[in-house]
Amino acid sequence: MICALVCALGLNSMLQCVVRCTRAALAEPAGNAGLKREDVVALPVATYAAAPQQAPAGCAICLSDFSDGEKIRVLPACGHRFHVVCVDTWLLSHCSCPTCRRRLSPLGAEAPLEMAIAP
Fold it and tell me: Which domain of life is it from (predicted)?
């Protein structure tokens, strides 16, 4: 009787795992293919302007600080900012933010946007 209970619990756990893995596979496309070049270019671009009382902000990919007047790309899904060249290279082979891994959808890509932002 105990053996049957243990087998039933093990089978139940295995089936739950299969269902979870199947749902995850259906929600995520196969692999981590990057965005198309035209979708990457369509993401917003901003001009960095440092605030006088704040520590300098930087690119999480190359780890260097932004300079005043430098063009940076702002990801619309999460608002994270990176050097244009750094994040464009990343997004051509990945479809998510390099910092928070939030997925970027090509359908959500907007027309290029020029704006001045402070950290």
Answer: Eukaryota
Q: Do residue 76 and residue 112 come from a single domain? A: yes
Question: Exposed, middle or buried: residue 60 (CB in 10 Å: 0-12, 13-18, 19+)?
Answer: middle
65-92: average pLDDT: 92
Residue owning tokens 């692999």 = 31
Average pLDDT of 78-86? Answer: 93
Are residues 76 and 26 part of one domain? no
| 50 shares a domain with 14 | no
Give the burial string for 86-117 (b: 16+ CB within 10 Å, else e): bbbebbeebbbbbeeeeebeeeebeeeeeeeb
Name the residue range of residue 66's domain.
37-117
